[in-house]
């Protein structure tokens, strides 16, 4: 059973995050140190430097030969279930959309497993809980955050291609589009569409093919360290564990000096974002409640179904369900802010999710412990 000392350990792990959050909030709202354009620049610093090195650091020090692959398979199946439901919702419901499907996937599946999960599940299930949540963290960073990055880049690249044109200035627009496309190495023959301007002239205008979009997205991902930092880390982890190697201290120190700032600067950036909003709950109470339902009910329910399907039982099953109810991933907010997609919803989910998570997770723990048949 969780003791007061265990709860204290969780508080020790989470309270410093709110210190960074408050400092970020105050630097914009109270002390006027940073301007809005500087807030965006700091978020980009987090997105392209501290978070990739943070992910590289913890994946490089994992041991993939000791992973519980049935546990990871259950997590993967649960995410496939959620994707299928969201795809059906986006296609069949008048309220469904591609953009909201992306955000809903983040809310249902991406968790703050290292900062909150490690101390909490360690208190609940000892070393087993710690090992499993670290394994989940690595696969989340390698696979699911990369998938999120891909769909965000795909959405942004699709919107960057002009599908229509103001016909009074079509020549200028087409000329600009042509120059942008050739910097990306794409043949305009792949792009179709026509527009007639006020003088009766016709111009080819870009309606990108799937192949063109995928080429653009691939090039952007190759230039984004978030898409490959974890892959580099896990390749090193396999190599190091197989041959008992360690990173040279100068390399390890170079990574560590920036990676240590990852979580803190992410929370600082979130505080700055909050300070620019008109309301404390930036997305409004309805969307905040919707996000909490997805995080604490829909996600764990999908994991429970998938875990039972692959035959998990005992404490491994309990850890699988509880880790799915951990508060929202901070990285998901950083990506949402960078790509301009529902950052208000994700910031609310992170901030209030961490506040609500402790009593909710303890309730999950007590309920699952009482179900001895699992």
UniProtKB/TrEMBL annotation:
Family to which the UniProt record says this protein belongs: Belongs to the auxin efflux carrier (TC 2.A.69.1) family.
Membrane topology: Multi-pass membrane protein
Gene Ontology BP annotations: auxin export across the plasma membrane; auxin polar transport; auxin-activated signaling pathway
CC terms in the record's Gene Ontology section: endoplasmic reticulum; plasma membrane
Entry superkingdom: Eukaryota
Function: May act as a component of the auxin efflux carrier.
The name this protein goes by in its record: Auxin efflux carrier component
Main location: membrane
Any GO molecular function: auxin efflux transmembrane transporter activity
Subcellular location: Membrane
Coiled-coil region list: none
């Amino acid at each position: 059973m969780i003791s007061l000392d265990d709860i204290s350990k969780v508080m020790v792990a989470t309270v410093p995050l709110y210190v960074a959050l408050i400092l970020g909030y105050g630097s914009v709202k109270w002390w006027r140190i940073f301007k809005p354009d500087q807030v965006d620049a700091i978020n980009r610093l987090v997105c392209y430097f501290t978070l990739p090195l943070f992910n590289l650091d913890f994946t490089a020090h994992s041991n993939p030969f000791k992973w519980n692959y049935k546990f990871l398979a259950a997590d993967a199946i649960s995410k496939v279930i959620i994707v299928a439901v969201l795809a059906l919702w986006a296609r069949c419901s008048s309220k469904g959309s591609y953009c909201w499907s992306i955000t809903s996937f983040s809310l249902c599946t991406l968790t703050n497993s290292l900062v909150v999960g490690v101390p909490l599940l360690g208190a609940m299930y000892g070393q087993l809980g710690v090992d499993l949540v670290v394994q989940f963290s690595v696969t989340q960073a390698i696979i699911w955050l990369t998938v999120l990055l891909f769909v965000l880049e795909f959405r942004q690249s699709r919107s960057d291609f002009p599908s229509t044109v103001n016909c009074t200035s079509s020549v200028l627009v087409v000329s600009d589009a042509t120059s942008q496309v050739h910097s990306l190495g794409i043949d305009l023959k792949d792009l179709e569409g026509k527009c007639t301007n006020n003088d009766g002239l016709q111009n080819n205008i870009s309606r990108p093919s799937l192949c063109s979009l995928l080429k653009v997205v691939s090039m952007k991902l190759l230039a984004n360290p978030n898409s490959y930092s974890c892959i580099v880390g896990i390749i090193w982890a396999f190599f190091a564990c197989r041959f008992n190697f360690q990173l040279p201290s100068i390399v390890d120190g170079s990574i560590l000096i920036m990676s240590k700032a990852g979580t803190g600067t992410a929370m600082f950036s979130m505080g700055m974002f909050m300070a620019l909003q008109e309301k404390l709950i930036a997305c409004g109470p309805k969307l905040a409640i919707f996000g909490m339902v997805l995080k604490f009910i829909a996600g764990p329910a999908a994991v429970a179904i998938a875990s039972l399907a692959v035959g998990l039982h005992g404490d491994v099953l309990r850890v699988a369900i509880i880790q799915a109810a951990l508060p929202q991933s901070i990285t998901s907010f950083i990506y949402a802010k960078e790509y301009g997609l529902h950052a208000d919803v994700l910031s609310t989910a992170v901030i209030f999710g961490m506040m609500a998570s402790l009593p909710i997770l303890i309730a999950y723990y007590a309920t699952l412990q009482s179900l001895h048949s699992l």
